[in-house]
Every structure is written in structure tokens, then in C-alpha cells.
Amino acid sequence: MGEETAGAGRAELRRVTVVGTGLIGTSIALALRARDVDVTLFDPDTASLRLACDLGAGRPLDETAESAPADIAVIAAPPAVVPAVLRQAQDRGLAQVYTDVASVKSSVLEGAEQLGCDMATFVPGHPMGGREKHGPGAARADLFLGRSWALCPTGKADPGSVAAVTELARLCGADPLVLEAQAHDRAVALVSHAPHVASSAVAARLVGGDETALTLAGQGVRDVTRIAGGDPSMWAEILTHNAGPVADVLREVAADLAATAEALHAQSAAASATASDSADGPETDEMEPVRDLLARGRSGHGRIPGKHGAVRRPEYTVIPVVIPDEPGALGRLFAAAATAGVNIEDVRIEHTPGLPLGVAELYLLPEAVDTLAEALSADGWSVHPGV
Ligand SMILES: NC(=O)c1ccc[n+]([C@@H]2O[C@H](COP(=O)([O-])OP(=O)(O)OC[C@H]3O[C@@H](n4cnc5c(N)ncnc54)[C@H](O)[C@@H]3O)[C@@H](O)[C@H]2O)c1
Ligand SMILES: O=C(O)C(=O)C[C@]1(C(=O)O)C=C[C@@H](O)C=C1
């Protein structure tokens, strides 16, 4: 690691080792590679390691071939194994400084202390960017752009270690934020862990929903339940390690939901008692708790800082293209884009059950939209830019 640059106060990272090449480890590695940092990778799962290497996230760690320890080792493994993996990495002298990315911090710190890890070189971290998918195949170099990245060093941490991990977060495009581990755990209970459970609770209702109801699913339910698609075993582990703070938030959410259900029952009963037909009728005073929750919900939503995730991500324009639901259709669409010399940055497919057609939403840089729309239209595709 280069000396902290006087004045700029920034560490220089030349080589970083990522231990655990899943979604988060590989995303960090890709972000660092884009900044020309040399990245060495390790994962006990050789398939994940190979895929991460093939994606350009770095080269496999070969300890015997390295002349010096890496500047930082990032432990990007599930929370429960982080202390043991840290201890092993420190025993092997993998790096000068160590960090992790686990979604919980108090239990990681306690585990590390119990195992006798060197706390001077360990700066626990938590990037607040992620996805509901796991594994290196879901990794993205821009996953942390504009996101907060919590750092929870103990009083024993060397300032140089903190500076190095701060620089790691910045190189990934994130905003580092130093806070104490327990405060971190209470904060993420509110903004991440309880929301995940609430999302799962809504999504779990869909298991018993009939096909017609699911056919009507629009963007609202997709937004609310996206994170419920996360890995249940990883989330059970996260919740186990932050059980108290999450339970506190969920009790309050449950109280709001219970009060709302009661109020709606009362509204339904009061309205049908006064209405001439059996349909639920005009609003009564019973709706007051519901109005109150909706108003507080709107206020809470308004408090989520707008800048995170919005400013520095590339702005893509989405163009919908109708595709026949048949083998090879997507391949032909991508080939047509390649012939037009346009890179498709991302793609999402919407299927309408029962229809022989689907919609491919192509994510493009704005300057590529006209070229592709014209080329696809000329090739006979049904293209709908601006929809
Ligand atoms: N998924 C998210 O949105 C998100 C966001 C921020 C932080 N995190 C945290 O990041 C960490 C990794 O999560 P992920 O989503 O990348 O999961 P993942 O399942 O995609 O990857 C985990 C990787 O850790 C590896 N691993 C397991 N045991 C290991 C060990 N003993 N030593 C080294 N590697 C080991 C696995 O083989 C796997 O490749 C977790 O601690 C999680 O709490 C996740
Ligand atoms: O965007 C998502 O899919 C996430 O769930 C990411 C998210 C979050 O709650 O914001 C989830 C868990 C992590 O520890 C950090 C980030």
C-alpha cells in the first residue's frame, strides 16, 4: 500500500485480494479492475472462482507467486464464516489490511475478537448496494455507484487501515460512512433487514394467489417484492445475526398493519350497514388510522435521500420491442442489434401468460436509440421507442 498521500489524505491501492467471489466480491473486483487495480481472487467454490476470472474480475490468487502481501484483502463471504476466514487470512499474511462486506457488523466484530484476530488491521465494512441475485454471474462493476458504504472500525484500528478501506469504497464509486457497529446494525435493521422481511411477507401472500390475480401483477407488486427474491439461507443468516434490532422494527410495522386491518374491517362493517347494497360504501371516520398510515408512509418515503443511486449511474433509455415467444427470437434480436453496431447495455423480458408474444425491454445509451430503432424497424421488428 502506498503511503497516505499528504494533503490528499488518500491511500494508494495497487493490489487487492477478494476472498469470496460471489455477487458482492466479484462486483467489488470488477469495479477495482475498471480503476486498474491488480485483483487476485479466491473462493473455495472453484466454479464461482473460474466464472469471476472469466468475467475479467481478476486472476486466481497464487500465494507462492506473490512477492508481497496485497494492500487489502476483502472478505466477501456469508456473515457467519467471516471471523474464521479473517483469522485464516491474517495467519497466512494475505494482506496488510483486511475488511469484510457482511450485512451485519456487531456479531462479526465479536467473532473476530473472540478468535484473536488482529483488530489494528481489520476495518469491518458494508457496501449498501446489492441485488436479489447471488453468485458472480449477477455481479456488476457499477453496483456501488453513489451508494453508502458503512465502515465500523473499533478503537484499535490503525488510521492507515481505515484510510485504505475508505479508498477501497471510493474506488468502487461509493460514499464511505464511519459509524459504530451497534449503530450500524440498528440502522440497517430499519433500512434494509426489516424491509426485506416485509417484502417477503407480501410476496408470501402470492403463493396462495390464483392465476388470474397473478396475471394482473403490475409494477407495484414487482417493486415491493423484488428483494424477496433474495437467497433465503443468506437472509436467514443475516436476520439471525441482527435479530433484536430487526424484531424491534418489525413489531412497529406489525402494529401499523394490525391497526390498518382493524380500521378497514370497521370501515367495511360501518359502510355496509349504511349502504343499500352489499358493496363497501362511503368512507367513514373508521378510515382515520388508514389515512394516518398513508400520510406517514409518504413522509417516510420522502426522507430517503434522492441522490443515492441516481446521480452517477449511467442513464439508459429503454426501448420495448415485441418478440414472438419462440426459440431463437432473442438471438435474432441481439444479432440485429450487433449488425446495427449498437451495444445492448441490459435487457428485461416481459411475458404475458397465454399470449404468443412478449416484450423485450432493451436498455441503451440514449445516443444509440435512434440508430437501433431505425435498424430494427427496417428489419421488420415491432419497435416502440418512447413508450
Ligand atoms: N446480496 C446483497 O445484496 C449484499 C449486499 C451487501 C452485502 N452483502 C454481504 O456480502 C456477503 C456475500 O454475499 P453475496 O450476496 O455476494 O453472496 P454470494 O452467495 O453471491 O457469494 C458468497 C460467496 O462466498 C463464498 N464462500 C462461502 N464460504 C466461504 C469461505 N469460507 N471462504 C471464502 N469464501 C466463501 C461462496 O462460495 C460464494 O462464492 C455476505 O456477507 C452478505 O451479507 C450482500
Ligand atoms: O437492492 C437490493 O437488492 C438489496 O437488497 C441490497 C441491500 C439493501 O437492503 O439495500 C441488501 C442487503 C445488503 O446488506 C445491502 C444492500
Automatic annotation (TrEMBL):
Pathway(s) it belongs to: Amino-acid biosynthesis; L-tyrosine biosynthesis; (4-hydroxyphenyl)pyruvate from prephenate (NAD(+) route): step 1/1
Entry superkingdom: Bacteria
A Gene Ontology molecular function term of the record: prephenate dehydrogenase (NAD+) activity
Presence of keyword Oxidoreductase: yes
Coiled coil: none
Record carries keyword Cell division: no
Domain (ACT) ranges: 318-387
InterPro entries: 6-PGluconate_DH-like_C_sf, ACT-like_dom_sf, ACT_dom, NAD(P)-bd_dom_sf, PDH_C, PDH_N, Preph/Arog_dehydrog, Prephen_DH
Residue ranges of every copy of the Prephenate/arogenate dehydrogenase domain listed in the record: 14-294
Enzyme Commission number(s): 1.3.1.12
SUPFAM superfamilies, per database record: 6-phosphogluconate dehydrogenase C-terminal domain-like (SSF48179), ACT-like (SSF55021), NAD(P)-binding Rossmann-fold domains (SSF51735)
Reaction equations catalysed: prephenate + NAD(+) = 3-(4-hydroxyphenyl)pyruvate + CO2 + NADH
Any matching Pfam family: PDH_N
Record keywords, A-Z: Amino-acid biosynthesis, Aromatic amino acid biosynthesis, NAD, Oxidoreductase, Tyrosine biosynthesis
Sequence similarity: Belongs to the prephenate/arogenate dehydrogenase family.
Protein name: Prephenate dehydrogenase
Protein's organism: Nocardiopsis exhalans
Lineage, highest ranks first: Bacteria, Bacillati, Actinomycetota, Actinomycetes, Streptosporangiales
